[in-house]
Amino acid sequence: xxxxxxxxxxxxxxxxxxxxxxxxxxxxxxxxxxxxxxxxxxxxxxxxxxxxxxxxxxxxxxxxxxxxxxxxxxxxxxxxxxxxxxxxxxxxxxxxxxxxxxxxxxxxxxxxxxxxxxxxxxxxxxxxxxxxxxxxxxxxxxxxxxxxxxxxxxxxxxxxxxxxxxxxxxxxxxxxxxxxxxxxxxxxxxxxxxxxxxxxxxxxxxxxxxxxxxxxxxxxxxxxxxxxxxxxxxxxxxxxxxxxxxxxxxxxxxxxxxxxxxxxxxxxxxxxxxxxxxxxxxxxxxxxxxxxxxxxxxxxxxxxxxxxxxxxxxxxxxxxxxxxxxxxxxxxxxxxxxxxx
Length: 341
Ligand code: HEM
What we know:
binds protoporphyrin IX containing FE, 5 strands
């Protein structure tokens, strides 16, 4: 029974005798997790903005998991689609909080950061090592395990993102997330069942550890949905929600880039990359290789004159099935993402 002080709420979790505001939220642990390493009065800001990101990343990953689960249900119906939509709306709202948090970060001036950057970044610590950020990328559809980047001197280095895991258990979670369907796999799977006339191959039978590659049948289905929104309103809404997610993800990367430029200029990163050049390449990458390419192509097609939009020229391989072209920047399990010049 919940509320009984001696009964576990869930396996391994015991409800404390008195459920106060502070105990329920674990505030003692949460608020003692800001350990300053310097005497700078600005370091607390730096720690809290990073921690805030990690907390929201955690929730966004959870919401994406729930949305994926709803859409992948064998008998998914309109109602499951609406639930997924609601979950994704929550992820969008989180993304907007994170984007606006750069306004707070940007109040850190270079002279203020200079006083503690050397100390906190002395062992190569950087957001680059955020495991939850990679996990979020996996859920959104950016699947890769190795990251190739340009070193400040011009050489290149490849890192295994799994090596940033802080424990074997965390590494296993990364491995599972890389192999599991991302949100677009789930949407396509749902679409394949709701619009069978388009002959979309259900990606559930596929290998999810790789980036999504353009599928002509998926493009045609989206094109239909956008031209006949009254006949597939749930999919239309879902399509726009995916665009919201990708649009916000792009904006986050650009906001990060702009803030980094403002605070440390064109200097190298504490994580060992070329810094601004690396981040610029990462931000532009989503325009060159979007996560949900068919949805962006529908826009190009819609505003093209008749006969102007050519599927082969847009990178679609054949009438059906995935085109074989890999993205030059990111490949899946065993592959890599290249960035930084
Ligand atoms: C003044 C503040 C910040 C500066 C100067 C900064 C700088 C950098 C730099 C130079 C990089 C490139 C990798 C490297 O060599 O280190 C990087 C990557 C990264 N940073 Fe920041 N950062 C700041 C704040 C943040 C915050 C608040 C977050 C939130 C979690 C964050 C998350 C990331 C992530 C996830 C990457 C990897 C991006 C990718 O691989 O596409 N950074 N940062």
